[in-house]
Amino acid sequence: MENLEKVPVVFVLHAYQPITQNKEILERIINNCYIPFFSKLLENKEVKISLNISGCLLEKLSIEYPEVIKLVEKAILTNQIELMGSAFYHPILPLLSEEDITYQIRKQNEIIKGLFDIKPIVFFPPELAISQSIIPYILREGFETIICPTNAINVTYGGVYDVDDRNRIFLLKRNKIISNKIAFDEFKRDDNKTLSEIIKEYNQFNLPIVLAMDLEAFGEHHGDYYNFFFSLTKKMSLLRVSEMTKEFMISTRVDFFTSSSWSTTNQDLEEGIYFPLWHDPLNVVHQLQHSHLELLKQVKSQISKGDWYNDYQAAHYSCQFWWASEIWWSPELIHTGLIFQKMILKKMSKELSETSKQVIFNLSEYFTNRIDELLSKKRLDK
Questions:
Q1: pLDDT of 328-356, one tens digit each?
Q2: pLDDT class for 255, splitting at 50, 70, 90?
Q3: Scanning 35, 65, 288, 367, which has its CA 20 to 30 A from the CA of 227?
């Protein structure tokens, strides 16, 4: 275990709670994770992270829990936190239109500018869900680096991706295996075991190890797990993403790119399923959920912008689909998403004719009833 301090590691942490999260759960997460984690971060001045906090969560914290924002601000001022850009309501970006992608990214940038007077240059796609088609929109908003999933690109660590003859961006690759082992506590809080695997990986390529995971792992998913994080990171040489891209100038060209997410397996890609936890073509509930969301898009195309627009964007939040995946399953949270969409649909439809409203609401009921039937069948099968 010699020369541990020379192993460069980048920790990319992501904090997100859905727009529909209830107050009791949010406060538990704040007390179990956010406050103790950021407090301990400020006590450990040598620890540096790159952090994404989804805009909808930032907004909620700034209004109702300003103590969390103050901790983050202090850590930014001590250069311990580099804030990353993302999409405000945590949608799966490749599933959105150009207008919606741009809106989500800009709204995230606006809240970061308003709260911290920062313009981020590193982009964290929600769920690391990425496709070739969304890169120009990210680049257009001034980002220089995108965190991407392991199987999206064909280079070991990361590289330069040419969008066209004049525009390029750096794609930084997440180490999926070690990230997931830490996130799911597979090392059983054993510093030496964790470091041994990191060193073994580092010795293969002599390039920084990029570890990306949910911030909530450290205290909410695993009680007091932030203690392990700070014990572990004391034995590493930590870099923020922007520091790492300057210190380790990699000119490798990325000549292969595929749509993926941090949950997409190689088998999923072979089957042409790029975002299996959110848009699985073989998952009937997913297809019905997206059909219901398509109703909102159709209404949007027929009306002028109004006080419903932010809610319409929020309706794309990812959790409602995640809880309908084959891995995770919650009828209650599937219904929460449908209720939220139906509320917005009603708000959007106000200026339509009664005939149009009736057609739209009938379709909405049809999709909802079909989902209910499938949920009931699944319960019986279990």
A1: 899 999 999 999 999 999 999 998 999 99
A2: confident
A3: 65
Closest to 145 (Cα-Cα) out of 168, 119, 118: 168
Q: Judge whether 346 and 306 are in contact, CB under 8 Å.
A: no
Cβ pair 83, 113 in contact under 8 A? no
Q: For the chain, what is the domain count?
A: 2
8 A C-beta contact, residue 122 and residue 144: yes
Write the CA distances from 122 to 113, 170, 202, 281, 332, integer angstroms: 14, 9, 23, 31, 35
Cβ atoms within 10 Å, residue 219: 23
Residue 339 in tokens: 């209720």
User: How far is 229 from 238, CA to CA, in rounded Å?
Assistant: 12
Domain span at 357? 284-381
CATH label of the domain that carries residue 195? 3.20.110.20
* Same domain, yes or no: 212 and 304: no
Compute CA 97 distance to the chain's CA centroid, rounded to the nearest angstrom: 18
**Does residue 295 share a domain with residue 210?**
no
